[in-house]
Amino acid sequence: MKVIPTINCNTFAAVKKQIKEARAFLPKNSWLQIDVSDGKFNPNKSWNNPEKLKEWLKTEKIEGINFEIHLMVVDPKPLVMRWLEAGAKRIIVHVETITEKDILFLKGFGKGKIGIALLPATPIKAAATYIEHFPFIQLLAVKPGFSGQKIQRNVLEKIVFLKALYPGITIEIDGGVNDRTAPTIKDAGGDIIVSGSYIFTATDKKAAYATLKKI
């Protein structure tokens, strides 16, 4: 499985710190996710300033990182454009925040630029309309917003079901991922795991990342 560290911070100072930490252990051209929460879609409000990040990355000459932005906001459309213009490689939007009328708009950004996400309580059928257009799906295994939560086991059933219905789909799992839960995600058919607190709170972040990569 692929491993993507995720940053979920309230301040730009914290975001910059974790990007620098990730840069120290990530191979070149690896993926790094940033969670963006508006405090309305979920309880937590996180840092969100794509233009400022673009400027800082240029000033610090930080290259070789593919940024994936997970939008946990009630109206993702304006932010999709801002983050892509700032250099993000992929944006993940929740099916709970879009409608079928938004498909054409989102497809307009190009193949592979948009992924969809489902909350733990959202049934797979809610994503059926979107999967043929965006065959990259992120399943949240915890309630969105705060890092360090325990995985909800029903996500494993969703993985198995999705792989059976859509063999070509790419499934990313976000929430509660650690060295104990990652093997069960892999066995269920998960393709990518996203990990925040397990990596960034570890004493040896490089070792924590390497542990997940070996699974």
UniProtKB/TrEMBL annotation:
SUPFAM superfamilies: Ribulose-phoshate binding barrel. Keywords: Isomerase, Metal-binding. Coiled coil: none annotated. InterPro entries: Aldolase_TIM, Ribul_P_3_epim-like, RibuloseP-bd_barrel. It holds the Pfam family Ribul_P_3_epim. GO terms for molecular function: metal ion binding; racemase and epimerase activity, acting on carbohydrates and derivatives. GO terms for biological process: carbohydrate metabolic process. The keyword Disulfide bond does not apply. It comes from the Bacteria. It comes from Candidatus Wolfebacteria bacterium GW2011_GWC2_39_22. The keyword Isomerase applies. The lineage of its organism: Bacteria, Candidatus Wolfeibacteriota. This is Ribulose-phosphate 3-epimerase.
